[in-house]
Write a structure and sequence with these properties.
Oligomer: heterodimer
Order of helices and strands of chain A: HHHHHHHHHHHHHHHH
CATH architecture of the largest domain in chain B: 3-Layer(aba) Sandwich
Structural class of chain B: alpha/beta
Number of domains of chain B: 2
Mean pLDDT of chain A: 85
Shape of chain A: globular
CATH architecture of the largest domain in chain A: Orthogonal Bundle
Low-confidence stretches of chain A: none
Strand content of chain B: 15-25%
Strand content of chain A: under 5%
Radius of gyration of chain A: 19 Å
Number of helices of chain A: 16
Shape of chain B: globular
Low-confidence stretches of chain B: 1-10, 298-302
Distance between the termini of chain B: 21 Å
Largest sheet of chain B: 7 strands, mixed
Helix content of chain A: 55-70%
Radius of gyration of chain B: 20 Å
Largest sheet of chain A: none
CATH superfamily of the largest domain in chain B: Vaccinia Virus protein VP39
Largest interface: A-B, 34 and 34 residues
Number of strands of chain A: 0
């Protein structure tokens, strides 16, 4: 993307009335989550949830869902949070607060499909990071969750063009960024980056958003970008993509991101990738439960 | 792994029966022995197959059955029985749509592109362990469609082999019941099958493209004759071989394939630990092994 296009995109995002604003609870939540798991303040999380009645209700509903198979119903937010565990609560909070970024009638990609992919990539990023021995698995999770945030931006700033773009990608069975380049002149990676800068998200997360399709020189983005890139690819190949067929062959052994990670984390060369791929089908169920909890209106 | 569609209605498994951690151990054992992976979201299939065997051997709990698979003197034959049970119902035409789509939309175009530059217009397939011919005829029908559209003027052949003479005879017959053809798209049914009473006979226009023969994959001298293949399918066969035989057979497959050729296993089957010569490649919903120009280094071996 040229500097000129980037400037135009930036001014478009920041000038229109309906610019996506950072959801009220997201910033404190990002702050809460951006520390080691053992230092996460549960009381603060419960407080944040209590600010938003619909999220609180969803936590309670999910804690009472068949997934947990409880005999006695959960009624308080605190008990719900304790039962769900931090990860699920965080998933709910993120997907909910980020969903509020755009009005219900402006979604171009089906919200359930969008979150299925985003949460799927987040889970795979975390798992992948664990396997590698990458020190910050939660950062990897967050990067996965936010990587396609530009799709929400595009739905806001150019709804008609973006709808046509998404239809083109679906019809021609091509990657979304390829369709965006052809029709919009910029991609959801570009617009996601601009939003990330406006929201003052940490630079490593912004890089993951920006470079997840086209990682270029892997040294530039480091392991986090490579993890998000590969996890996104894997999800698109395993029923956690955008709901359309992308006829492609991915040879991970020739993927620059993979080769870079093998160099950085030599144990990756011994990973049973076939088995890892097959296990991804297991995430679909977990993601499905979560998405259906968030989107039962 | 069996398709969901192979489940019959009475295979309802209560949710709590799936949560026993012993299933994970049985799953991992199956993977270690056979390379077939049962994802947790499909555990009801694993459990229902194990239940059949548990009844047969008279074990009351999964833990007790694990003993049958690991500690009893006849554990190898019980594992074989379980694998048989797991792969039962696998043999139907158009069994794995993700594999078929990968073949149609990615593999065949990629092979055709390379071959065109070399002025070859023929593709050769090997259906290894073809059983009663369902996979072999599926391939022939797919290729017939291709040769009427994108690959006009191309020729192809499907070599189909199996150890079992009765299977080969049945394959040559090419007559299937409605269960075996349940996944066949209607347009293929119309074009490539003739209904004979309750059964469906593969049409004559398909038959010349498939040759069936008996072959023991452990017979090195016979395996050496298989050469110049573009795509090999060998689904749920290697699972019955021990480690050494697997490696030997996969090496034969490697040598039989042309450079850039593809080797497909069952949908949830892996070659991990068997060979490092192939690249594992991913397609939407499917994986295969691809033969590169040169054997790969450790970093790239999957």
């Amino acid at each position: 993307m040229t500097m000129e296009t980037l400037d135009r995109l930036r001014s478009r995002i920041t000038s229109i009335d309906s610019m996506p604003t950072i959801p009220v609870i997201l910033r404190p939540l990002l702050h809460c989550m951006d520390q080691p798991v053992e230092q996460i303040d549960i009381a603060r999380i419960v407080e944040l949830i209590s600010y938003d009645k619909s999220i609180a209700a969803q936590c309670v509903r999910m804690a009472n869902s068949a997934l947990f198979g409880r005999d006695t119903p959960v009624e308080s937010v605190r008990t719900a949070v304790m039962n769900l565990g931090m990860w699920r609560v965080r998933d709910l909070l993120f997907s909910n607060s980020l969903s509020q970024v755009i009005p219900a009638n402006r979604w171009v990609v089906e919200p359930a499909v969008f979150w299925r992919h985003s949460l799927g990539v987040a889970l795979v990023c975390r798992k992948f990071a664990e396997i590698l021995g990458y020190q910050d698995t939660e950062k990897a999770y967050l990067a996965g969750l936010l990587h396609d945030i530009g799709i929400l931006v595009n739905s806001m700033i150019a709804p008609d063009e973006f709808r046509a773009t998404f239809e083109k990608a679906t019809r021609e069975q091509i990657a979304l960024d390829e369709a965006e380049r052809a029709t919009l002149g910029f991609t959801h990676c570009d617009s996601g980056r601009v939003l990330g800068e406006a929201w003052r998200i940490t630079p490593d997360l912004i890089q993951a958003i920006d470079l997840h399709h086209d990682i270029g020189d892997p040294e530039r983005g480091g392991p986090l970008v490579a993890i998000v890139h590969l996890s996104d690819l894997l999800c698109r190949l395993r029923d956690l993509g955008y709901g359309y067929y992308e006829p492609r062959q991915v040879d991970f052994a020739n993927e620059p991101g993979w080769l870079y990670l093998v160099m950085k984390f030599p144990n990756l060369a011994d990973l049973d990738l076939a088995r890892f791929t097959f296990t991804l089908d297991e995430y679909a169920k977990e993601v499905g439960e979560l998405v259906s909890t968030v989107f039962v209106r | 792994m069996p398709n969901d569609s192979t489940l019959v209605a009475n295979e309802q498994i209560p949710v709590e029966a799936l949560s026993d951690p012993v299933w994970i151990r049985i799953r991992d054992l199956i993977y270690q022995v056979s390379g077939i992976y049962q994802a947790e979201n499909k555990f009801y299939l694993l459990v229902s197959r194990c239940n059949v065997r548990m009844k047969a051997v008279g074990s009351r709990t999964p833990r007790e059955y694990l003993d049958f698979l690991t500690a009893r003197p006849n554990r190898d034959s019980e594992m074989r029985n379980l694998l048989n049970e797991i792969t039962i119902g696998e043999t139907c035409l158009f069994r794995s749509m993700p594999q078929i789509e990968a073949l149609r939309k990615v593999v065949i175009p990629a092979l055709a592109e390379v071959k065109r530059t070399l002025s070859y217009t023929k593709l050769r397939f090997w259906s290894a362990g073809c059983s009663t011919g369902e996979e072999s005829y599926t391939l022939a029908m797919l290729m017939l469609e291709e040769s009427q559209t994108r690959l006009k003027g191309w020729t192809f052949e499907i070599m189909a082999t199996d150890l079992n003479e009765r299977s080969v005879a049945k394959a040559q017959e090419g007559v299937y019941n409605d269960y075996a053809v349940r996944n066949v798209p209607p347009e293929y049914m119309k074009k490539y099958f003739i209904q004979t009473g309750p059964n469906f006979r593969v049409a004559d226009c398909v038959r010349p493209f498939v040759s069936f023969s008996r072959l023991n994959m452990l017979d090195d001298s016979k395996m050496l004759f298989m050469r110049g293949i573009d795509v090999i399918f060998c689904c749920n066969v290697l699972i019955y071989f021990d480690g050494k035989s697997k490696t030997r057979t996969v090496n034969h497959f490697y040598n039989a394939l042309l450079t850039n050729g593809y080797f497909f296993l069952g949908q949830s089957e892996s070659l991990y630990g068997i060979t490092e010569k192939f690249h594992l490649v991913h397609f939407p919903g499917a994986t295969a092994y691809w033969k590169p120009n040169e054997p790969v280094s450790k970093a790239g071996a999957l």
